[in-house]
């Protein structure tokens, strides 16, 4: 999408045996005390009686038994649910548990245990079962690691006044270093193409301190957009899937597999690997339909746009959605989806065929369905475009003054970090006259909005951060737009909503319970591998590990006979989370052991070298 809009407005590699790199400790925080749960915890997709909880265990064992606990208190003394699950390499050692038997609209705390070591404690919240006075969500999209720091996530955690986070996609990005953003570097450094790559990119994101805190404190309801696979993807291809990058169906499949492993969402159909669209209900206040306008049914962008049979959802998903809308008894029918639904034109021409403008017949059909079936409170939540918009959804004979003949309203959230494609202050003054249904736009700033729903009103309050080039706690209030029950159009209001008292609960503690810090001796207490990717490996292998204290360090590779085939003195290194890339393309196929060594001990990791 970025190419289309930019054009319209005209406006490491790692070498063999590269020097060791140290991470920014401000970004990763003190993760040494999280071993073996370096990636923290997460929860998502709450119902009135259940919630998904997630973690990952880092271990050298072939499989790991991990216990989980859910309690009503931060000290984890009043345990209300518990169990044990087994994970292994087939799941990338991730753990997902659907915890059932919980009480409606209740705050819970949870953690995991492996070999007498606890994970962080997480905080989550179930959905209400019936009536509720108000609901409140943080809405985000487009978090490109390379474009900067996740200050938006930090601000949402600091608010402590929302029920859950709704993430509308582009949670990760697929590019390599320097291809799209240069504030921070990715791991792996190249574009991600295979299962190991996608797993490692998810792993790298979840080591980020700001993202880890967001997941720790709130349940997240997420869907993917294109960058979780490749830019401008559709069901049978992508703009950023090129010659020499393998089979698209395989790449799409492994991207989906890694997302399923690393994200705390509940699969809506265990027999359909590609399906993510699902309904998340919050009592009689909201039915949230999380859609997939990207991978499931979308036909290729820019092709036969006036074809009346053209689809962005696919017939199966469209039928599911309209059936759900028609049967919904909730006050608000909310669509969480990826690309702008309302028209965006200049001189009568759509600006971006990647949006619903490229699928006008299906958009009209959906809007007509909403009117014909008396769905009075259709609200669309949108990400993708890295800018902020508030608009009506116009039908034939739409009246911009009264809002008559609007099918519903749309709130478009800007990005967490990704830059605006049309970063020209004041440009909205040129665009808006061509689009009278668009009530407001901010085409420059990055941030989030708070979605507040009551029995009489649905309102979005936009907030903006001052920069993403460094950690920053500064934010400013933007604007607020709302729709009243049954009106189907937007109005402006000069102040944001205020949280209901019952949304404020005690944070999950910053540290795991019953943690014993590393001692002064013992291999496991000196060094710890977090990730070795890919494994099996053909050429470059990427290491992530922690040095718990300052040491003189060396790195060796041994074959199965014990012969040392590679050695490098890493010198004196400070404590911290570190990375290293080694080129092993010259080694014959077989099994090898990577050894990190200090004066106090060593730690080994097995790798498989393939041709």
The CATH class designation of the largest domain is: Alpha Beta
Strand order of the largest sheet: 6-3-2-12-11-10-24-25-26-27
Relative strand content: 25-35%
Number of strands: 34
User: The CATH topology of the largest domain is what?
Assistant: Purple Acid Phosphatase, chain A, domain 2
Number of helices: 10
Q: If you compute it from the alpha carbons, what radius of gyration comes out, rounded to the nearest whole angstrom? A: 24 Å
Fraction of helical residues = 10-25%
Average pLDDT level: 90
Annotated CATH architecture of the largest domain = 4-Layer Sandwich
State the end-to-end distance.
37 Å
Low-confidence stretches: 2-28, 515-524
The major sheet is characterized as:
10 strands, mixed
């Amino acid at each position: 999408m970025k190419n289309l809009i930019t054009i319209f407005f005209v406006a490491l590699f790692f070498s063999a045996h590269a020097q060791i790199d140290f991470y920014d400790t401000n970004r990763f925080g003190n993760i040494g005390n999280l071993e073996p749960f370096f990636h923290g915890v997460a929860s998502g997709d709450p119902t009135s009686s259940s919630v998904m909880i997630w973690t990952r265990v880092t271990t050298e064992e072939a499989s790991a038994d991990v216990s989980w606990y859910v309690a009503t208190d931060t000290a984890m003394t009043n345990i209300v649910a518990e169990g044990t699950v087994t994970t292994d390499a087939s799941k990338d050692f991730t753990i997902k548990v659907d915890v059932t038997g919980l009480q409606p609209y209740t705050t819970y705390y949870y953690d995991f245990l492996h070999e007498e070591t606890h994970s962080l404690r997480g905080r989550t919240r179930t959905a209400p079962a019936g009536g509720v006075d108000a609901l409140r969500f943080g809405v985000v999209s487009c978090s490109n690691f390379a474009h900067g720091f996740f200050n938006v996530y930090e601000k949402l955690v600091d608010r402590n006044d929302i029920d859950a986070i709704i993430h509308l996609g582009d949670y990760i990005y697929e590019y390599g270093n320097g291809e799209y953003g240069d504030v921070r570097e990715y791991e792996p450094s190249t574009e991600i193409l295979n299962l190991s790559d996608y797993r490692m990119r998810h792993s790298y994101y979840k080591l980020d301190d700001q993202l880890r805190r967001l997941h720790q404190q709130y349940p997240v309801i997420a869907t993917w957009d294109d960058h979780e696979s490749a830019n401008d993807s559709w069901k049978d291809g992508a703009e950023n899937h090129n010659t020499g990058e393998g089979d698209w169906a395989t790449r799409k499949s492994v991207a989906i597999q890694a997302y399923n492993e690393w994200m705390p969402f509940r699969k809506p159909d265990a027999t359909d690997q590609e399906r993510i669209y699902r309904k998340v209900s919050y009592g009689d206040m909201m039915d949230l339909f999380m859609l997939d306008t990207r991978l499931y049914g979308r036909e290729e962008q820019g092709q036969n746009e006036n074809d009346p049979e053209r689809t962005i959802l696919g017939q199966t998903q469209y039928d599911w959605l309209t059936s759900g809308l028609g049967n919904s008894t909730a006050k608000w029918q909310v669509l969480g989806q990826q690309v702008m639904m309302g028209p965006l034109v200049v001189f009568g021409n759509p600006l971006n065929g990647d949006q619903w403008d490229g699928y006008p017949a299906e958009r009209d059909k959906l809007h007509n369905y909403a009117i014909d079936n008396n769905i009075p409170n259709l609200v669309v939540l949108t990400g993708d475009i890295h800018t902020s918009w508030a608009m009506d959804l116009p039908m034939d004979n739409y009246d911009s003054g009264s809002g008559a003949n609007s099918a519903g309203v749309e709130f478009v959230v800007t990005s967490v970090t990704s830059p605006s494609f049309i970063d020209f202050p004041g440009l909205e003054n040129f665009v808006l006259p061509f689009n009278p249904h668009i009530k407001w736009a901010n085409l420059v700033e990055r941030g989030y909005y708070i979605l507040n729903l009551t029995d009489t009103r649905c309102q979005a309050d936009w907030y903006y951060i001052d920069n993403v080039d460094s950690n920053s706690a500064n934010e400013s209030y933007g604007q607020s737009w709302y729709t009243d029950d049954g009106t189907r159009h937007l109005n402006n209001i000069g102040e944001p909503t205020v949280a209901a008292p019952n949304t404020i609960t005690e944070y999950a503690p910053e540290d795991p319970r019953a943690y014993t810090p590393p001692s002064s001796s013992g291999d496991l207490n000196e060094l710890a591998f977090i990730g070795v990717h890919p494994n099996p490996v053909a050429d470059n292998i990427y290491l992530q590990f922690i040095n718990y204290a300052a040491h003189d360090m060396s790195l060796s590779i041994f074959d199965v006979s014990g012969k040392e085939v590679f050695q490098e003195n890493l010198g004196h290194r400070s404590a911290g989370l570190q990375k290293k890339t080694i080129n092993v393309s010259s080694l014959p196929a077989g099994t090898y052991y990577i050894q990190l060594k200090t004066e106090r001990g060593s730690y080994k990791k097995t790798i498989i070298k393939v041709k």
